[in-house]
Amino acid sequence: MKHILAVGNATLDLIFALEDYPREDSEVRAQDMQMRRGGNAANTLAVLSQLGHRCALAGVLADGAESDLILADLARHHIDTSACQKLAGRPPTSCVLLNRRDGKRTIVHYRDIPEYSFGSFQQIRLAPWDWIHFEARSNVGELACMLRHVRDQRPDLRCSLEVEKARPWVRQLFPMVDVLLCSRAYAHAKGFAQPYPFLHWLREQAPQADLIVAWGEEGAYGLDRYDQQHHSPAFAPPEVKDTLGAGDTFNAAVIDAFLRDLTLDEILQAGCHLAGVKCGQEGLDDLV
Ligand code: ADP
Ligand code: FRU
Fold this sequence. Notes:
This protein is an alpha/beta fold. It is built from eight helices and 15 strands. Adenosine-5'-diphosphate is lined by residues 183-184, 214-217, 219-220, 234, 236, 240, 243, 246-247, 250, 272, 275-276, 279.
C-alpha cells in the first residue's frame, strides 16, 4: 500500500447511453441516464484506491449542491479531499454521449471555476507521499511551480504527468517528471500519426523520463530511459460497453505497476489489461 496524491480534476458527468450516435439536429431518446463523479485525476485515484493504495486529491471543489454527488463518491472511494480548494460556483460538468453500439464516448465539457493553484499546493506536506500524479490542465504555470517545489523539497519523490491535450507551454513541464503519460490526441495534435516517432520527439523534451502513449484499440507504446521501445496490445473484453475513463484506468494501473517496480513491458501490459476490463463494463467500480 502506497500513498498517492493526484493534482487535477473531479467533475460531474451526465452520461446518456444511446443506441447509436445521433445526427445533428435530430431528437433521440436515451436508453439510460446516469450522473457520476468523473474527472481524470479523480478517476485515476478511484482505481488506485481499488488497487489498495491510500489516495488524496488536490483539486478544486465547488461549494454548491451539485457537488454533493462528487463529494459522496470521493468519500466512498476513501479519497482524502483535505488538500482540495473549496470555491464558490458549480463543479466542472461534462455531458457524455455513450454509444452502446461500440462503447465510444463523446464528451462535451464545461468549466468556469478556476484551476488548482500553487498557493494551495504549497500547503501540502510532501513527506507522506510515494508518488504524485499531475493532470496537465490549463494551469501550466502553476503546475510548473508545483513541480519545481517538489523537485526542491523531495527530489526522490516520483512524479507522473498526464498530457491529454496540446496546451501552451505544457512542454516546460516534461523535464521535471519521471513518467509522461500522453494521449494519442496529443500525438496527433503534434503532427504524429505513429506512436514511436512521437515518443522519440518527446525524448528531446524529457531526457530522463519513461515515456508512454496510450493508443486506444491498439494498446499502448513506451520508450524507456535507455531508449528501448515497448508495446502492449490492448486486451479486448468480450464486448466493449463503455470506454469513458479507459485512459484514466490505464494511468492508474501504470502508476501501480511502477510502484511495484515492474519492467516497462509489464507496466504497459498491466495498464492495457485493466483498461480492457474497464471497457467491458459500465463505470469504474469493481474493477479489481
Ligand atoms: P481515453 O480516450 O479514455 O484517454 P484511450 O483511448 O487512449 O483512452 O485508451 C486507453 C487504454 O484503454 C488503451 O491503451 C487501451 O489499453 C484501452 N482501450 C481503449 N479502447 C479500447 C477498446 N476498444 N478495447 C480494449 N481496450 C481499449
Ligand atoms: C474521462 C473524464 C470524464 C470527465 C472528462 C473531463 O476521462 O475524466 O470523467 O468528464 O474526462 O475531461
